[in-house]
Structures are given as C-alpha cells and as structure tokens.
Design goal:
5-stranded mixed beta sheet, 10 strands, alpha/beta, 35% helix, 2 domains
Length: 248
C-alpha cells in the first residue's frame, strides 16, 4: 500500500499543471537540459521535467503506468513497440541520429581505431548493456563487424545506460564505447578529439536513429503537444547538432 501511495504521489507531482514530463534516453540527457532551457525562455509558464534512464528501462516504466508525457528514445524500436501496444498517441518520429565514439581518459594512438582495444594495457572496456541500451547494441555490432567481439568480451564492464557507461569509461575503465553526444558535455571538455577520442566508423553499426513519441498520458496536455513539436524545430535541431547529433 505504501508503495502504491508513493507512486500515486509521484504521478500527481509529475502531472501537475504547467509542467511537461519527458522520459529521455541517457545519451540525450545533457542536450535535453539545453532544449528545456531554450523552450522555457519563450514559454516561461511551462516547466520541463526530465527523467533520464536507459531506453529499455524507461519503456518498461511506461508500460507499468509511469506518468511520462513524451518519450525520447535512443532508437526507434522501443517507441514502435509502445505504439503497437497502445501507449503512444503519435507515430514514432526520428528527432536525431546518434554516433558512437571510442574514448579513453588517457592519450592513446587512436589511429588504430577499434583495434586499439586489443592492446593488453587496456584491461577494462566500458560498454553499454546491449539488452537495454541501443548504444550498447551499436557497440556490439561495431565490435563484431570489426572481428573483435569475442576476443574482447572478457574485458567488458557493462553500464546499464550509455551515461553510466561514460562514467565507467571516465573513472573505472581504460577505454569505452560511448555516445558522441556525451563528449560534448562539460565533464568531458578537457579531452581532445584525436588524442582521447574518435568517432567510430558509422559503417560498422546500424544507424542509431533516435525516436520520439507523444505518449497518451500527454495527449490531452497542450503544453506537452507544444514541446513535442518544438523538438523537431530548427532551433532544437541546432542545439542537437552542437551535441554531435545528425538531425533529419
């Protein structure tokens, strides 16, 4: 009973007037903060509330009644699944295409590309969980296509989201495969392209088309509908590009 009351209290808080609750994949969390600030400058009466997690876990929460109004996934599969099961009020639409990056907090000879990970000095490699994180699936595809997956598997340290994976790559691993967008956040500002990170060849993995949907919980909220449209605006697109995304 206590757990039910806590859930209902959370739902009431998230759904109160003047707010829009957005569930967002971890890779887009930092960019979404800038999107929310930009939107709130022209819509000061609206507060954008952001819940960040792995796309798989957020999808499970939505199916169990979490009162999110907009979902920004790291792929198109999860939004399509929610559309099929009736939780979505709109068809999934691509808002950004993400890219995968190879990162190390230490300077490395990145001219080797993914083959660098075969270096015996790289004992721990941070990778997002392929079961719940689309960037983890992309990392697995890239490593398999490069012929490195099986040899490197014993070294993997799995993060439940790409944001947790980035933290591991920064503090607990020798290298990691993370979202390029993460490298545009302030905590990665000291690290330089070509010395600490490179973009992984996009030909090695399926394009990371990130999908957005307006959920049925938000369909009757005019502010949620306005923010959903804003996500596809030129202004929002410019912010997303600053974080390394490609925008349709």
């Amino acid at each position: 009973m206590l757990r039910l009351l806590m859930f209902l209290g959370l739902a009431a808080a998230l759904l109160r007037a003047g707010s829009v609750t957005v569930a967002a994949a971890a890779n887009v969390g930092d960019a979404l903060k800038d999107l929310a600030r930009d939107f709130e400058r022209t819509h000061p009466e609206t507060k954008i509330r952001v819940i960040v997690g792995s796309s798989g876990k957020l999808t499970a929460q939505i199916r169990h009644g979490a009162p999110y109004q907009i979902f920004l996934s790291a792929d198109m599969d999860y939004p399509r699944a929610l559309r099929r099961t009736g939780e979505a009020a709109t068809e999934p639409r691509v808002y950004a295409r993400g890219l995968l990056a190879l990162f190390s907090a230490q300077k490395r000879d990145l001219r080797k590309g993914l083959a660098l990970l075969e270096d015996p000095q790289i004992r721990r490699i941070a990778v997002a969980n392929p079961r719940t994180a689309p960037y983890g699936r992309a990392a697995a595809q890239a490593l398999k296509n490069a012929g490195l997956w099986e040899a490197l598997r014993p070294r993997f340290v799995y993060g439940e989201s790409v944001s947790q994976t980035a933290a591991y790559a920064l503090n607990a691993a020798d290298a990691g495969l993370i979202a390029l967008s993460t490298l545009h956040s302030s905590r990665f500002a000291p690290f330089k392209k070509g010395e600490h990170w490179i973009v992984v060849d996009p030909k090695l993995y399926r394009p990371i088309d990130q999908g957005a949907i307006l959920l049925k919980v938000g369909a009757d909220n005019p502010e949620a509908r306005v923010f959903y449209r804003y996500i596809f605006s030129p202004g929002a697109g410019e912010i997303l590009r600053r974080y390394g995304y490609r925008v349709p």
